[in-house]
Design brief:
alpha/beta, 4-stranded parallel β-sheet, 8 helices, globular
């Protein structure tokens, strides 16, 4: 059994994780541990340890810090929990690179110019070229998700990133990828994948998109 601990600072979109757990099979467990913004993680760290988590990924915050600060925060999280750690923001970079995608289009939540610029800068620091950015308000059914991904996509993008952590996307990944003909990476999907990567697990799960089916670039 591989147990993943997800440290959630925003409860929106969390219904995706039980669905992903089900699609991964019976030997992967996804445990959500809620953390109030600004709260210390001592209690959460103990909860993760008691749950037997093999790795922890912090999710719900999006791209709220620059790349260097995010790496420092994750290193501190690893120190405090005593286990491999990452975040959803770093997971997007690692997942894109694992697929061999260096040019990405981004469908982001609506925000200020500064927030969008920080997101683009974060991805550039991770070695990704942003070919286009489309912003929209949070929420939407499959048709709305399809519209957002299509609006963000550019011909030279090798993948589309749907970065809003509040969106529930797990049920729609095959349709999204079929619509644009390339990998689509979403917050819940890459968060769980990152936990598995830290735990040194590869799981074949076609319903979770190309990220869970393709041979990683490092092995191709």
């Amino acid at each position: 059994m591989t147990a993943l601990g997800l440290l959630c600072t925003d409860h929106r979109g969390e219904d995706d994780y039980p669905r992903i757990e089900q699609l991964l099979g019976s030997d992967v467990r996804v445990d959500l541990v809620r953390l109030d913004p600004g709260a210390g993680i001592t209690g959460a760290a103990e909860e993760l340890r008691l749950a037997g988590a093999d790795a922890v990924v912090r999710t719900g915050e999006g791209f709220t810090h620059d790349a260097e600060d995010e790496v420092n925060r994750v290193e501190e999280l690893a120190r405090q929990t005593g286990m491999p750690a990452s975040s959803t923001a770093l997971a997007f970079v690692n997942a894109a690179r694992d697929l061999g995608a260096t040019r990405v289009a981004v469908a982001a939540p609506a925000g200020t110019h500064e927030e969008t610029a920080r997101l683009r800068g974060f991805l550039r620091a991770g070695g990704l070229e942003v070919t286009g950015t489309h912003t929209a308000a949070t929420g939407g059914d499959e048709d709305a998700l399809l519209a957002r991904v299509a609006a963000a996509d550019t011909p030279d993008a090798e993948a589309v990133l749907l970065t809003d952590p509040a969106l529930e996307t797990a049920a729609h990944l095959p349709a999204l990828e079929k619509a644009v003909g390339k990998p689509v990476l979403t917050a819940s999907q890459v968060t769980v994948w990152e936990g598995l990567r830290l735990a040194e697990r590869r799981v074949h799960a076609p319903d979770l998109g190309a990220l869970f089916t393709r041979t990683p670039a490092s092995e191709g």
